[in-house]
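ping. complex inputs:
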Amino acid sequence: MTEDSAQKNVLILGIGNLLWADEGFGVRAVEELHRRYEFDDTVKLMDGGTQGIYLVQHVRDSDVLVVFDAVDYGLAPGTLKLVEGAEVPRFLGAKKVSLHQTGFQEVLAMAEMFDEAPEHLYLIGVQPEELEDYGGSLRDVVKQQIDPSIEAALSYLEKLGITARKRPVPLSEQHTLGCQVMQIERYENERPAEEAACRVGDERLIVDERWKAPENFDRELEAVLAETPDGRIFGVKV
Amino acid sequence: MSTVTTPNGFSLDTSGQRVVIDPVTRIEGHMRCEVNIDSDNIIRNAVSTGTMWRGLEVILKGRDPRDAWAFTQRICGVCTGTHALTSVRAVEDALKIEIPDNANSIRNIMQLSLQIHDHLVHFYHLHALDWVNPVNALKADPKATSELQMKVSPSHAKSSPGYFRDVQTRIRKFVESGQLGPFKNGYWTNPAYLLPPEADLMAVTHYLEALDFQKEIMTVRTIFGGKDTHPNWLVGGVPCAINMDGAGAPINMERLNYVRSICERTKKFIKDVYIPDLIAIGGFYKHWLYGGGISNQSVLSYGDIPDRANDYSPANLMMPRGAIINGKLEEVHEVDLRDPNEIQEFVPHSWYSYPDEAKGLHPWDGLTEPNFELGANFKGTKTNIKELDESAKYSWIKAPRWKGHAMEVGPLARYIIGYSQGHEVITEQVNGLLKTLDVPVDALFSTLGRTAARALESEWCADMQLYFLDKLINNIKNGDTATANTQSFDPSTWPSEVKGVGFTEAPRGALGHWIRIKDTKIENYQCIVPTTWNGSPRDNQGNIGAFEAALLNTKVERAEEPVEILRNLHSFDPCLACSTHVMSEDGDELAVVKVR
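pong. complex structure:
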């Protein structure tokens, strides 16, 4: 570890709504990371849920921000997409899976107003398979990306000289980062049957074209980045 | 063409131009609003619609009642704690569980902290930009701004010309970067903005100061709830142990002293910044008294903040409780959440089915069966609605009524009830503000009144936090360290069928959870949230709800930039965070706005 990296404050944040199936990916991934690894005190792991403004302070306090989230890239379900630096805030606003992303883009902008946006940004996104399953959990293809997403986070941090220590035994659910009630096995096993509890949302939103994925994600993202003035976004060079 | 008068006394005229504001969101509930504007740009008909069905009620069926709080606090990104508290109270009511005094004090401190936090963030970060123009702030003279600051709040330290110059430079840099961030999608050339540049700069500066300060308020809930950003809750008490000498205990003297220092700084921030800003900004807008809606005829509060634990009678609730109807402000009625004839939900204009839709249902007997069908006169397609038909079903929000009346809930409702009851602090605060602004008491019944009530309530909450902190510390000093009663935590001790109700006054108004437990599992769970009351569609009698009423007769400067509509809606602090599309009648997108 370099002298410099020892000073860096790191925030590893999972965002999304646990109640909307694959929307819960970010929170589940950071919970799992916490169960398996421990870090120095300068590294904070957090279940950000769908909180907006309440997260500003944590973002301002961090030099390195790693965000786990479900993001619609128009890719095959379960595809992992890694986005770095200036692409992150713009991307969060480009195609929304849910409103918390607008909220989070604003959180980054607010940190920037204080001139305290994180120096390093990393978004670990997964393409959701299913969102319209209220009360449901992660689909298998998305759940299978938890391990690779943790690997991605660790190797990104490694490059910045921030190391994680694997716990000899993963923490039990009693010590989960989230709350025990929402712990994934309980959440899944105690779910009432479909006949007892309807699982769909508003049909207008399910079929609404406003929620369609981009046809060509990379092209759209490039178009967004091309608009960037002076090659910097939130103080980060593109 | 067609003018009707509703039973609650409003004239609706659908002949003018229809303007549609349609947010699209998933998290905090969706809302769409349609209005008809006449040739003088005055709103003559208003339709408020919840456009998303969340169905929390159904996903809780069959779950463990002790877990319900954790689900309810995930409904939404802003009212987490108040839903959790309401939920544990409902379960405790059903199972006749009494909580220890310390748990009552701690819950009250957390709830008061949430109130203040929510009010502050609402005023500065969600509502201020309806009144304050950050682009205009760039024209301000920092020296004149400094003079203004010292005039409105002599005790606030951050007031030098250099300080305001620095902030102005920062805002300029931010705006000129082309990324307005939270300031984008504003109508910054609209004549509806009335502040001089110096007042705009002062307010934008406090936008940043409040953003910086709000983190401290959150800390109170983190200490007692054990976790940021979703605190833990517990049926039977609070999940934090007290050990005054223990360095490692969640609650010890050091932490309580820290909580006290935050509470004191919070009180000072409200006194030195929030209240003076309300008065300064309010002074420029005091003739803009639109948006009263039904606040001068029917308001409702369940009350909250029990002084002694386990006593939810009106005399023991420090936040006022009661109902006012028919504009008779001198008569405050008692409210019974259990009486099947008082609170009922109607669905003739909501996308749900009841066996008999002429009747309302009490939440214990509530049904949540979705039935999405559009009226014959709607325009567009089922998946791309251009215009709703409000004579038929048109909202995912049910229409709750108290004894048949549409009611406004929230800080203004609480303050009107407290004022009518002669609540000492409230009366003094309200009279003081009216005198300072030199406006009559009728000015209360307005959008501005709603915004003012929120600020005054924050001031009251800050004092109450300290009251309960003292109470907690005294109780601990007397040897009582209990924080939870787990006697009835084992489901094998529960009766086979029970029901209960829990209530709080959430920052945005009366919140109730009604639960039925059968064989240790949730059989039925119904929530009536504040935005259901305020944003309700019409009922079986044709009465309009608080949002719709507040929009009526408001003059809009520019139909395509309806900042006045946002002002009125935002003043309720509706529980939704949305990016909104404003459509013209033919569906062309005119503008994108934010509604929060």
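Residues 98-288 of chain B form a domain with the Cytochrome-c3 Hydrogenase; chain B fold (CATH 1.10.645.10).
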